[in-house]
Amino acid sequence: MPNFWDEPQKAGAIMQELETLKNERVAFDTLKQSLEDIEELIQMEHDEASEKAITEELAHLGEQLHTWEWQTLMSGDYDTSGAVLTLRSGAGGVDAQDWTEMLLRMYLRYAERKGFRTQILEESRGTEAGIKSITFECAGIYAYGFLKYEAGIHRLVRLSPFNANSLRQTSFASLEVMPLLPPDDTSIEIKDDEIRIDTFRSSGAGGQSVNKTESAIRITHLPSGIVVTCQTERSQLQNRESAMKLLRSKLLQEKLIAQAKERAELRGEYKSAEWGNQIRSYVLHPYNLVKDHRTNTETADTGKVLDGNLDTFIESELRYFA
Fold first, then answer.
1. Among candidate residues 216, 26, 5, 58, the one with its CA nearest the CA of residue 123
2. Per residue in 233-256, pLDDT tens?
3. Domains in the chain: boundaries
4. Cα separation of 44 and 312, whole Å?
5. CA distance 242 to 123
6. Angle, nearest 10°, between helix axes 48-71 and 311-321?
7. What are phi and psi of 217, to 5 degrees?
8. Arch. (CATH architecture) of 192-266
9. pTM
């Protein structure tokens, strides 16, 4: 393909996916060979020391097989895609905005552990602290498959650092997770006459950080009323590309939600998503506990979870919804 690198962004995404698939194949072949080797060892005569080594190796292989097993639970149409995540602060004032920033760090740390690339597309910071809303891209194979069931309301209970009397405060934040469509995907088509594009100056910290050109982009999808913005890049063209990427993801998510609602209504089990229906609670006072209210998975190691160790919760979600 002589023109492969004419579109660097598209080519880079393909190369990253190819590298991930290669690594998966190498891991699979290594695991298969290890299983064959351990089978041969078991059939041979061995002493107490070799029995101990075999037992340890079997435990290690069991962990690897366990990881492969729950990855097979991701069989949705877009599970291998990247993801676009939007966090929004809810009830709780400044504490909720601070909680939103804590969740952002948690998911960025999770993405780092999984080897996903992240890029902030849109951000609105709180005037005192924290984040009102933020949208970021999480690029990597299976990113959407891993994260799709994290969508919903996340509730925090703690002693407020923003209250002079250190009273206990309950805060809420919502997470929206959308598939990240590749550049060549044609499942969502957007016609030029269906969108309105406005430009404005990006907000900044002031001084030399002020952007003196109208590089920020706001795109309104007229048929649906969906509005997306992007102002993280200095280039208007780059912001437009990111905004269109976000719009396509939002339109696809609307389509998937409508399809899921229709299927659920046919089964007689559809329930609207109300603000009080939190999917997970994070309690830091008067005790430590993170509990998923759908799967009943819980842990007292709140620090580990908030540092991005979400595998236990995500695996239980995948099994629950499968």
1. 216
2. 778 888 888 888 889 998 988 888
3. 4-71, 82-185+272-321, 192-266
4. 37
5. 13
6. 60
7. -125, 135
8. 2-Layer Sandwich (3.30)
9. 0.76
